[in-house]
From TrEMBL:
GO terms for molecular function: [protein-PII] uridylyltransferase activity; phosphoric diester hydrolase activity. NCBIfam families: PRK03381.1, UTase_glnD. It comes from the Bacteria. The keyword Ribosomal protein does not apply. PROSITE patterns: ACT, HD. Residues 695-704 have a biased composition (Basic and acidic residues). Its cofactor is Mg(2+). It comes from Mycolicibacterium fallax. Signal peptide: none annotated. It catalyses: [protein-PII]-uridylyl-L-tyrosine + H2O = [protein-PII]-L-tyrosine + UMP + H(+); [protein-PII]-L-tyrosine + UTP = [protein-PII]-uridylyl-L-tyrosine + diphosphate. This is Bifunctional uridylyltransferase/uridylyl-removing enzyme.
Length: 810
């Protein structure tokens, strides 16, 4: 038992010593050395005081540190978190020892978060108080009876492990509430280094999950090629900044105010406030990535309850070498990333389309073993990239996950200059790289407004890629866009358009807000700058809106939208009209087969690029052949990249460029047999497709008990454009929409049910979008309202974004 009477030991010498350690001058300690010295200083004072008070190994008392001292991360103005443990000692003895320990600290104005408890009392509090429970996970013996401290620490960790299943929802709720209050470190002008998303509290959360054996406290150490540091590197960076913030401000601040940024950047030899902001963004985003992955891993590792405990996770195929398992996108067992450069983008596309996160282990494996993509990229890789970019907000999280693990930088080495680059203009709320990703997300909702959605999302991704290099970022960015477009394998004409989009992405907003739009000279200058290209004008109009919406609050509004819209309208009038689409020519051998007999012919040959095939179907030209042909291809998991539909000699001649969802396509004979059955009415391909998509009641009943792989809803509303044909009964119908399985079959079935003949068609899939043009002839004596009914029926089968909930009346 501790001796009496207790004589308080003055703490003024502790304060003075701490002040000397934090002083500047010739012998100034760096941040890490200062933290270590402060830990040693407080331990020496506490152990000395404990000895003076009789708190020895046999006294029945122990001093336990939590918080910063417990972690060994003592900052100049950190609170001192201490727990005085006792072994059922008498109340007056406990009071005397506690007062002798706390009063000197209070008298010296040291902030102390203190408590006095037995081991049982401390564990009882921890069982109901989440903060207390997590605090004990960092507890460390300082002085007194080590067995008493060990008993508490060991049982606190055991209690945490055994109770984590019941506490996990509370952990997630508290974490999300903290993020909502404090924001993200990476995107706050004055970030909260401790409580913000990606801050030091999140590292402590990962430590707590690791203590429950649900996550790795040191996940994914950065490889030699990774552009981001490890979790430990990021934690150290935030600790250094917070240490210097305490030292400079003279207070225990957690929020980095702008007035201190330049001086802290200089003290840490990082640079000015912009360099410091970039370093903080890097650290914060790395920690945020790891904590997201840690929470998912922990949630999946916890035992399920109720009916969920009876269901084993199912591996569902998503793409070649890619599966969904337990709510995450993962590699299939047979996947060989070291021999498959396109696997990275297939994984990313599956994640973006489904909205499911990529498993951290999958990303780490890809980062370790996936080879570089050779230039030019194969068409399938470009297609997967376009799918990612066309998925709206999912594109942001997908790009972020790839970037945090070094994979995005391999695909786009130019990204390094804009990664975590803080904006120089106060109207921007994002770092430059995040702004590019947000612009892609906004552009995803505008893809049906343009004839080239693929170029729109690529332009959104690259429009500010020239920043961070000095000079005019539009000019520099245009040069980089040419380099990137060539590497992606774009056609030279498309590279030219992409370069012009980046070069002139500010042309419309600058002209609309600074020039007289009623002056013909202004309009002529814009038209001449764009070389009379209406397609480029259309793309720049959509890009200007996406760029404005992703910049910051109030940047894009009705005033700016009206001005730019007026400029575009005037410029369009000054340019020549666009030529209408035309049917593709028919190969002579296909004409010969069509003239030879009335049989169904299916030809399957290799396509122009790896993984693609050309399927030509020749069949007697009667209503239903096109929808059934498209349906048979969809049922066999053959994605249509493009199609040309024509007829000759009384036969339909339909050529499709397809890519199998998995492996190789089925034999041509099998496709022919299936189409023959469909044409004979023995198989209803549309009904089978709808059943797979979940439209049937039976499938809905199954889905209520067995979850299916989710698919993100479209972000862009469908759009139908009508162009006059050669006479009043012929029209060109252009359909722009988000691609879904079986869409071509559904669209053509609408025409067929209405009795309209599809004379020819051109189908193009660009990433997640389709541009389909149909030349249709109305049936003889058609109702004048046929066009309106066709449009309504087409919209009924086209995928559309979910309706926006109506605002509740105040």
């Amino acid at each position: 038992m501790a001796d009496e009477p207790r004589v308080p030991k003055p703490a003024t010498d502790l304060v003075a010593a701490a002040r000397r350690l934090g002083a500047g001058g010739e012998h100034r300690l760096d941040s890490a050395a200062l933290r270590a010295a402060l830990v040693d200083l407080h331990e020496v004072w506490l152990t000395g005081t404990a000895a003076d008070l009789g708190i020895t190994e046999s006294s029945g008392f122990a001093i336990v540190a939590t918080g910063g001292l417990g972690r060994g991360e003592m900052l100049p103005h950190s609170d001192l978190d201490l727990l005085l443990l006792h072994d059922q000692m008498a109340a007056d003895t406990v009071t005397a020892v506690a007062e002798a320990l706390w009063y000197p600290l209070w008298d010296a104005n040291i902030r102390v978060d203190h408590s006095v408890r037995t081991v049982g009392e401390a564990l009882t509090v921890a069982s109901t108080d989440l903060a207390a429970a997590m605090g004990l996970l960092e507890a460390r013996h300082i002085a007194g009876d080590p067995e008493l401290s060990t008993l508490l620490i060991r049982n606190a960790r055991r209690q945490w492990r055994l109770g984590i299943a019941g506490r996990f929802p509370e952990i997630v709720e508290h974490t999300q509430a903290r993020w909502a209050r404090s924001g993200e470190i990476a995107h706050r002008a004055e970030p909260d280094l401790k409580n913000g998303r990606g801050g030091l509290r999140d590292v402590q959360l990962l430590t707590a999950l690791a203590a429950a054996q649900l996550a790795d406290v040191h996940p994914g150490a950065a490889g030699a090629s990774a552009p981001v540091g490890s979790l430990a590197d990021s934690q150290r960076a935030l600790l250094d900044v917070r240490t210097e913030l305490h030292r400079l401000s003279g207070r225990g601040r957690d929020t980095l105010l702008a007035q201190h940024a330049d001086e802290i950047g200089a003290a840490l030899r990082i640079g000015d406030r912009f360099d410091l902001a970039r370093a903080l963004s890097d650290a914060g985003r790395t920690i945020a990535y790891h904590v997201d992955a840690g929470l998912r891993t922990a949630g999946n590792a916890l035992p399920k309850r109720g009916f969920a405990a009876l269901r084993r996770p199912i591996r569902r195929p998503l793409d070649e070498g890619v599966i969904e398992y337990n709510g995450e996108v993962m590699l299939a067992r047979e996947a060989r990333p070291q021999r498959d450069p396109g696997l990275v983008l297939r994984v990313a596309a599956a994640s973006a389309v489904t909205g499911l996160p990529m498993a951290a282990a999958t990303l780490n494996r890809l980062a370790d073993s996936a080879p570089e993509m050779r230039a030019p990229w194969p068409a399938s890789a470009l297609q997967d990239l376009l799918v990612v970019l066309g998925t709206g907000s999912s594109a942001v999280s997908t790009i972020e996950a790839l970037d945090r693990t070094g994979l995005w930088g391999r695909l786009f080495p130019e990204w390094g200059a804009v990664r975590d680059l803080p904006p120089r203009d106060v109207v921007h709320v994002w770092t430059v790289d995040r702004h590019l990703a947000e612009t892609v997300a906004q552009a995803g909702a505008l893809t049906t407004r343009v004839s080239r959605p693929d170029l729109l999302v690529l332009g959104a991704l690259l429009h500010d890629i020239g920043k961070g290099r000095g000079g005019d970022h539009s000019v520099i960015g245009a040069e980089l866009a040419a380099q990137i477009g060539t590497r992606l394998g774009l056609w030279p004409s498309d590279i030219d358009v992409l370069v012009d989009m980046v070069r002139y992405h500010l042309l419309l907003p600058d002209t609309a807000t600074r020039r007289d739009l009623a002056d013909p000279v202004t309009i002529a200058e814009v038209a001449n700058t764009l070389g009379g290209d209406l397609q480029l004008l259309e793309l720049l109009h959509a890009l200007a809106e996406a760029d404005g919406l992703s910049t910051g609050p109030g940047v894009w509004g009705d005033w700016k939208a009206t001005l730019i819209g007026d400029l575009v309208r005037r410029t369009r009038l000054a340019l020549a009209g666009e030529p209408l689409p035309r049917a593709d020519p028919i190969a002579e051998r296909h004409r010969a087969l069509a003239a030879a007999d009335d049989e169904v012919h299916v030809e399957l040959v290799d396509g122009d690029g790896p993984g693609t095939y050309r399927v030509t179907i020749i069949a007697p030209d009667r209503r239903g052949v096109l929808s059934r042909s498209a349906g048979v291809l969809a049922l066999n998991a053959l994605r249509v990249h493009s199609a040309s539909v024509s007829s000759a000699h009384g036969s339909a001649i339909d050529t499709f460029v397809v890519a199998p969802h998995f492996g190789r396509p089925p034999a041509a004979e099998l496709l022919r047999q299936q189409l023959s059955l469909a044409m004979a009415g023995d198989v209803d391909v549309l009904e089978l497709l709808r059943g797979r998509a979940g439209d049937g009641a039976e499938h809905r009943r199954e889905s209520s008990t067995r979850a299916a792989v989710p698919v993100n809803p479209p972000t862009a509303p469908p759009r139908i454009l009508w162009h006059d044909g050669p006479d009043a009964d012929r029209w060109l119908v252009e359909v722009r929409a988000t691609d879904v399985t079986g869409l071509l079959a559904e669209l053509t079935a609408v025409f067929e049910r209405a009795g309209a003949d599809v004379e020819w068609a051109k189908v193009t899939t660009l990433g997640a979008s389709v541009i389909d043009v149909f030349s249709i002839a109305a049936p003889a004596g058609a109702d004048p309202a046929l066009r309106q009914r066709l449009e309504a029926d087409l919209y009924a089968v086209l995928p559309a974004p979910p309706p926006v909930p109506a605002a509740e009346p105040e």
